[in-house]
């Protein structure tokens, strides 16, 4: 007989539940099965009403992030065998509002992302006939690490400051701001500073460091924020000492 | 929204400077005065010599920076400990005045101290 493992999955159906609760499911314990495979097994074979997000199954799309045994992880990259002997507790990402079962509301995060303008900003757009914006491998290496972010929001579920202060822009958005700040083709740093040097910006971070611990892509958002604090402070002092200067 | 300007870059600079200077130099003071000299690894320096060393302008600047910046380091960290640890962010104004105010008072006392050695 096949061995099984128990999953305790947080359920919440807003049309009939007043509060979330945990429901137990027994699934086959198969080698090379990840937590997402177990959820798919439940959905296909035991309980079709279970809702959760997923897409690529290979750590690229960033949509299957959940709390597994109280840790924010990508369920497509967390093997059942890592969680022995079970039960495995699966819950929606911490600090987010739950829409249904394991599906969280990402509106707040999306809004924060937009506010840091994570796209190339140039003062003047070069006409197409003048060719592309060229970059050396060294210039690309400056921001490469921060460009690995897949917006999975695990860092928001790990950051106690993001949990306590909803207005805090948060790790991934700041790392993405830095991805463009460090891009040799970009000229938008000043605009991003307006969002990030003030209330709820980089200085709300107390360097807990959990964002970098849980990041599945080794983006190191904590490092990105620390670098921003240093350059932001330098720019602030410059604006005080040389108020007429262009900072 | 995040675009409300504040003085956090200023306080953070003092916090960072205080953390760096105290992390580097306070262990040296503890090791020398708290461990090495009591254990007899070094001879006890004579009082007059120490006073003379402390009166040197560079020593005064060093002692003042060490005292003042360490206090600002404490103030900034304690401010956020009260915000997040004890979840007292709603008392923000009082906490800011208490933390940085204490560091400023300590800085003034420190200045008087180093000038009166």
Automatic annotation (TrEMBL), chain A:
The UniProt record lists the keyword 4Fe-4S: yes
Known cofactor(s): [4Fe-4S] cluster; [3Fe-4S] cluster; [2Fe-2S] cluster
One matching Pfam family: Fer2_3
UniProt keyword annotations, A-Z: 2Fe-2S, 3Fe-4S, 4Fe-4S, Iron, Iron-sulfur, Metal-binding, Oxidoreductase, Tricarboxylic acid cycle
Cofactor info, note text: Binds 1 [4Fe-4S] cluster. Binds 1 [3Fe-4S] cluster.
The keyword Plastid is annotated on this UniProt entry: no
Pathway membership: Carbohydrate metabolism; tricarboxylic acid cycle; fumarate from succinate (bacterial route): step 1/1
EC nos: 1.3.5.1
Broad enzyme group: oxidoreductase
The protein, known as: Fumarate reductase iron-sulfur subunit
Protein source organism: Fodinibius salsisoli
TrEMBL record, chain B:
Signal sequence coordinates: none
Coiled coil: none
Keywords tagged on the record: Cell membrane, Membrane, Transmembrane, Transmembrane helix
Cited Pfam families: Fumarate_red_D
Keyword Transmembrane (UniProt): yes
InterPro entries assigned: Fumarate_red_D (IPR003418), SQR/QFR_C/D (IPR034804)
Sequence intervals crossing the membrane: 12-41, 61-82, 94-115
Protein name as catalogued: Fumarate reductase subunit D
Origin species: Fodinibius salsisoli
